[in-house]
Amino acid sequence: MGKKRKHSETEVVANVKKDESAPERAKRTLLGWKDKTEGEKESNDSPAVFRSNEKVLVTCSRRINFRYRHLMLNLVSLLPHCKKDNKVESKQSKGSTLNELVELKSCSSCLFFECRKGKDLYLWMSKCPNGPSVKFLVNAVHTMEELKLTGNHLKGTRPILTFSTNFEKDPHWKLLKEMIMQIFGTPKDHRKSKPYHDHVFVFSIVDDHIWFRNYQISCPRTGANKVDRGDLDKMTLVEVGPRFCLNPIKIFGGSFGGPTLYENPFYVSPNQIRALEKRQKAGKFAKKVKAKTRRKMHELSNPLEPDEFAEIWKE
Amino acid sequence: MEVLKKKPTVFEDEMVKDAGTGDFDVEVSESESDSQEDEDVKLAEPSKNAIYNRDGLLDKLGDISWPKNVEWIHKLSFDIDQEQEVDVNDDLTRELAFYTQALEGTRQAFLKFQSMELPFLRTSDFYAEMVKSDNHMEKVKGRLLAEKRRIEEAEERRKARESKKIAKEIQSQKLKERAKQKKEGIESVKKWRKQRQQSGFAGMDKEGDINLPFEDGKAFERSNKRRPGVAPGDRSGGKARQGGGKMKKGFDKKRKGKESKESKFGFGGRKGLKKQNTAETTNDLRGFNNNDFSGKKKRKR
């Protein structure tokens, strides 16, 4: 389905005509589906069969930490509808280069892991070609390789997405929810996806951060393949990983740029934090010197009274 | 696949142990809170010039969002209500909140799939590539087993220690009791002696409760039941001696010889007394063999 979605109601409907379940099938030509019927379809758009053909480009900047790289690879293994690309020079990542890359790969959204100073990970989540895009600071990363996360699930099954209700609270959370749903949800009938559903994604806002968890659904089987209601209570979840926590910094109107729509008012960059810490440490010696001189000045300004009994024991 | 089957039980165990949050959750999140502390500084109050373009956001949302009438099966998403505000720094409650959210989501999904009559969990005969390799799962399993073993060992050690303590106590109690018993015995004997002394010995004799054999005076005399021809100290009562001299030819010749030797030199019992001569044995010439002489001659030739 070579056509790109252009994010408007009519275009979505236009997409529909390619669905094979549609009553009149378009003729197949060498170059794709013939668009002859487009006009008619738009007029009688009642049975709008929706089909998502989301493709996510996953890439990272150069000089990425191994831990963050593993996180990225984990995400790649979780998203069957993604394309992994080579590392991008982080200087180039500003704006157009990445957009071009996304377009080149015919993707509709992008996850870009940007590592700075080998320790801070920023995640760009963007809808291409015309926005919006979000920049997150990623905290508390645990990759899937950690042995404490004991779950496992099929590669390529469609995840069930759960969002906490506080995503509905503010417009920026709403926007993020929609983006996450589109990017992290595997499209129905994607050719790399498998049937069945055996894992759950958790997106939860706690303390103004989005927390991500991935759990395997495990059900004790009672012989039969069919799961019945009795098993519902016995259903348990085992964490598969990865874990991370996203702190939204900014939301831009375009993809990788454009007007700023939202700015996190509480955000302090890790650089600032480190600088602050350093400054606190640096002040130590200066403080000591200052205290010493102050004491001296104090002693000079109010000298001790001469001791009248000092002479007594001098004999 | 085996690993896969194992896990749920392990996890369940943990669930039982401390109500919903296994201890690996704690372990994992410990490091998390550490990293949080230095990374997660927030401004005390919101900065005033932060941009918040409500309309722009909603506009964009309208742009990108899927049409309203999209079926749920395309989204597979749920909104789960969080009951109360979760404290971020309390790792246990936070993880528990995530877990319950996920569990609630799966329950709803399960019901929905059932009502739509679509497959939900994979069938047991559906095998495909997993997210984590078998190699990795082997490692995970090894770790779990090691953990279990460690816990068991610790438990055993603790038990041994406790039992040792108890055993010590019991032993000391026993010793005390024994000492007490001994003391009592001695005391009772003393008491009895005193009583006896007070009442005089004569009366006691008539009652005659102690008529020990050695009180008769003839205590250590040898019994005179000596049989003739039996060496003193021969416990067989002279039976061993019977037929000592007779030699039979054939198969049991050797045995006889052995017997006679044994009767002469003894097998068992005290040797010293047996080898002594008595008047009878000196007179008894059965043991001497005249043929010996000829035998020597033969050898000389």
Automatic annotation (TrEMBL), chain A:
<dbReference type="GO" id="GO:0000027">
    <property type="term" value="P:ribosomal large subunit assembly"/>
</dbReference>
<comment type="similarity">
    <text>Belongs to the BRX1 family.</text>
</comment>
<protein>
    <recommendedName>
        <fullName>Brix domain-containing protein</fullName>
    </recommendedName>
</protein>
<dbReference type="Pfam" id="PF04427">
    <property type="entry name" value="Brix"/>
</dbReference>
<keyword id="KW-0539">Nucleus</keyword>
<feature type="region of interest" description="Disordered">
    <location>
        <begin position="1"/>
        <end position="47"/>
    </location>
</feature>
<keyword id="KW-0690">Ribosome biogenesis</keyword>
<dbReference type="InterPro" id="IPR026532">
    <property type="entry name" value="BRX1"/>
</dbReference>
<dbReference type="InterPro" id="IPR007109">
    <property type="entry name" value="Brix"/>
</dbReference>
<feature type="compositionally biased region" description="Basic and acidic residues">
    <location>
        <begin position="16"/>
        <end position="44"/>
    </location>
</feature>
<feature type="domain" description="Brix">
    <location>
        <begin position="54"/>
        <end position="257"/>
    </location>
</feature>
<dbReference type="GO" id="GO:0005730">
    <property type="term" value="C:nucleolus"/>
</dbReference>
From TrEMBL, chain B:
<feature type="compositionally biased region" description="Basic and acidic residues">
    <location>
        <begin position="204"/>
        <end position="223"/>
    </location>
</feature>
<dbReference type="GO" id="GO:0042254">
    <property type="term" value="P:ribosome biogenesis"/>
</dbReference>
<feature type="compositionally biased region" description="Acidic residues">
    <location>
        <begin position="24"/>
        <end position="40"/>
    </location>
</feature>
<feature type="compositionally biased region" description="Polar residues">
    <location>
        <begin position="276"/>
        <end position="293"/>
    </location>
</feature>
<feature type="compositionally biased region" description="Basic and acidic residues">
    <location>
        <begin position="156"/>
        <end position="168"/>
    </location>
</feature>
<comment type="similarity">
    <text>Belongs to the EBP2 family.</text>
</comment>
<feature type="compositionally biased region" description="Basic residues">
    <location>
        <begin position="246"/>
        <end position="258"/>
    </location>
</feature>
<dbReference type="Pfam" id="PF05890">
    <property type="entry name" value="Ebp2"/>
</dbReference>
<keyword id="KW-0690">Ribosome biogenesis</keyword>
<dbReference type="InterPro" id="IPR008610">
    <property type="entry name" value="Ebp2"/>
</dbReference>
<protein>
    <recommendedName>
        <fullName>rRNA processing protein EBP2</fullName>
    </recommendedName>
</protein>
<feature type="region of interest" description="Disordered">
    <location>
        <begin position="156"/>
        <end position="301"/>
    </location>
</feature>
<feature type="compositionally biased region" description="Basic and acidic residues">
    <location>
        <begin position="174"/>
        <end position="190"/>
    </location>
</feature>
<dbReference type="GO" id="GO:0005730">
    <property type="term" value="C:nucleolus"/>
</dbReference>
<feature type="region of interest" description="Disordered">
    <location>
        <begin position="21"/>
        <end position="46"/>
    </location>
</feature>
<keyword id="KW-0175">Coiled coil</keyword>
<keyword id="KW-0539">Nucleus</keyword>
